[in-house]
Design brief:
globular; PyrdxlP-dep_Trfase_major; Asp_trans; Aspartate Aminotransferase, domain 1; L-tyrosine-2-oxoglutarate transaminase activity; 394 residues; alpha/beta; binds pyridoxal-5'-phosphate; 7-stranded mixed beta sheet; two-stranded parallel sheet; Aromatic amino acid aminotransferase apoenzyme; binds (2S)-2-hydroxy-3-(4-hydroxyphenyl)propanoic acid; Aspartate Aminotransferase, domain 2
């Protein structure tokens, strides 16, 4: 029967990972997949995660099923980290999911259950998996202008104009912080204007937040999500623990549904549990349990926060180093945006043939849309990349 299947498009980011692995050059530089790497190129298990795993191994006496929405303690701990006191806990439904991807998938399914004709507005560009899952679910996608190719910042006027065309029953997907793939983000006043438009149009926001703590700090990175959640009657929040806890393969995420009051809680919570049951019954627990242990233990949490700050500051240091190297080499400020961007990624804003030239001639691997993972750099490779960028004529 399966001869009827059609080949599906490959994940370009993961395909690039393989190309990099197959490249024999010792000087190659991997700026592809969004994984944090330290100065030696390793992605270590975070100290607090190791400590929590050790404690878990010693104390866990059963691996019996949790609940369809996962352990409520995980939802509580994540709610506090992400939303603080922005909205009451008892208006928010929450379910653990396999990673932030799982949270997005369940969110899209919930949207479709509630409104089969909903359109989802997505930034142009956005994380490719948003588009791929929406297409798979047959949900209409409406791109909104986001990246300004000229300034490499946000095309804010374009974004607002496009968001004004949304209507009640539509969903506007926003990256909570550290936009993937561009690195360009809204400032606080711009977030306020987006909230205004959401309130005017009645469209429902969905916030995907996969990099809390990678931009300006744990609290600062949650500020926009909190503001949106507090201002609108309903919103969806898809959170990932993959990056900020470094537990990529454990598949740890949470989907939250914030409602205006407590009356919708039972229905929303029941829907999240139902959706988990349809797809995989119980969500993965190991990563969620580690996160819960870390967030609920003062010493573990302090150590995790300290290490996360090291990670964040390393990336910021690499940003400023690259921007200043490029300023020296180019004699201009046209790469200043690299220091303004936040998170793991920056979109260089160049053509696919120049991205290919960087790869073929210099062994520098970035995604074809010129997205680079800043964490793939170190003190040695920053000047190498800067020279290569100038060499290929970017
Ligand atoms: N959303 C965005 C924008 C991402 O970049 C990612 C990837 O890290 C995710 C969601 C979800 O990642 P994961 O499923 O590994 O938690
Ligand atoms: O954008 C990235 O690189 C990360 C990791 O199918 C990732 O979000 C890449 C591809 C993918 C899932 C996650």
């Amino acid at each position: 029967m399966f001869e009827t299947l059609k080949a599906q498009p490959a994940d370009k980011i993961l395909a690039l990972m393989q190309l990099y692995r197959d490249d024999p050059r010792e000087t190659k530089v991997d700026l592809g997949v969004g994984v944090y790497k330290d100065a030696t190129g390793l992605t270590p298990v975070m100290r607090a995660v190791k400590a929590a795993e050790h404690k878990l191994w010693e104390t866990q006496d059963s691996k019996v099923y949790t609940g369809l929405a996962g352990d409520p303690a995980f939802a509580d701990a994540m709610f506090t980290m992400l939303l603080g006191d922005a909205v009451p806990r008892n208006t928010t439904a929450a379910a653990a999911t396999p990673g932030g991807t799982g949270a997005c998938r369940q969110a899209f399914e919930m949207i479709q259950m509630a409104r089969p004709d909903a359109r989802v507005f997505v930034s142009d560009p956005t994380w490719p998996n948003h588009l791929s899952i929406l297409k798979y679910l047959n949900i209409e996608v409406v791109p909104y202008r986001y990246f300004d190719e000229e300034t490499r910042g946000v095309d804010f006027d374009g974004m607002i104009a496009d968001l004004k065309t949304a209507k009640k029953g539509d969903v506007v997907l926003l990256h909570g912080c550290c936009h993937n793939p561009t690195g360009a983000n809204l400032n606080a006043a711009e977030w306020d204007a987006v909230i205004e438009v959401l309130l005017q149009t009645g469209a429902t926001p969905m916030i995907d937040i996969a990099y809390q703590g990678f931009g300006d700090g744990l609290e600062a990175d949650a500020a926009a999500t909190r503001k949106v959640a507090a201002a609108v009657p309903e919103c969806l929040i898809a959170a990932s623990c993959s990056k900020n806890f470094g537990i990529y393969r454990e598949r740890t995420g949470l989907l939250m549904v914030v409602a205006a009051d407590t009356s919708a809680l039972t229905l929303n919570q029941g829907t999240l549990a139902f959706l988990n049951r349809q797809n995989y019954s119980f969500p993965p627990d190991h990563g969620a349990r580690l996160v819960t242990m870390i967030l609920n233990d003062d010493a573990l949490r302090a150590d995790w926060m300290a290490e996360l700050e090291e990670v964040r500051n390393t990336m910021l240091g690499l940003r400023t180093a690259l921007a200043s190297e490029l300023q020296k080499l180019s004699g201009s400020d046209r790469f200043g945006f690299l220091a303004q961007h936040r998170g793991m990624f920056s979109r260089l804003g160049t053509t696919p043939d120049k991205v290919e030239a960087l790869r073929d001639k210099h062994g520098i691997y970035m995604v074809g849309d010129s997205r680079m993972n800043i964490a793939g750099l170190n003190a040695e490779s920053v000047p190498i990349l800067a020279r290569a960028i100038i060499d290929v004529g970017i």
